[in-house]
Design brief:
By secondary structure, the protein is mostly helical. Helix content is 36%, strand content 7%. A two-stranded parallel sheet has the order 1-2. A two-stranded antiparallel ribbon has the order 3-4. A hairpin with a 2-residue loop joins strand 3 and strand 4. Helix 2 packs across helix 4 and helix 3 packs across helix 4. It binds a DNA duplex (13 and 13 nucleotides) through helix 3, helix 4 and strand 2.
Length: 121
DNA sequence: GCCCTGACCGCCA
DNA sequence: ATGGCGGCCAGGG
């Protein structure tokens, strides 16, 4: 297993999930992003042991069971840019949630200082 | 198996 | 700052 420092999700929750290790690793990593901080798709993928698979992070969040209550809003694109279209509902929602945690969002992007470094393997 | 799509990314004009 | 392009890779038809 070359999953780096990432551990599987709580057994109690993984039972009824997809059984896809990659997705679970990503979900777990996203859960680890501290409140008030954000990370990027690429960084999450790396931390989850999937270097170069930023898109996989997007997919993982997309198909994540709502029951997991993942802090998906803490994941932004490279450079702190919100990935959703400027006018989309999701974009507004993410900005709202971030601001609710004290993260400044300007012109669809968060300050670089708000981006955390999820420890790279 | 082939083709298209996409909550991405970095590079370059 | 802005837009285009190729590279990347997993899903779905």
């Amino acid at each position: 297993m070359r999953r780096g420092s990432v551990q599987p999700l709580d057994p109690a929750r993984t039972q009824s999930l997809t059984g896809n290790a990659a997705l679970e690793a990503i979900w777990y990593t996203v859960c680890a992003i501290p409140r008030g901080q954000v990370s990027t798709y690429g960084a999450v993928a790396r931390a989850a042991g999937l270097p170069g698979r930023a898109r996989q992070t997007g997919y993982a969040l997309r198909v994540a069971p709502p029951s997991l209550n993942l802090p998906w809003h803490r994941v932004v694109g490279a450079g702190g840019r919100i990935a959703f279209p400027k006018s989309s509902r999701a974009h507004a929602e993410q900005a709202r949630r971030l601001r609710a945690e004290g993260v400044a969002v300007r012109a669809g992007r968060v300050a670089a200082s708000a981006i955390t470094d999820l420890g790279e393997p």
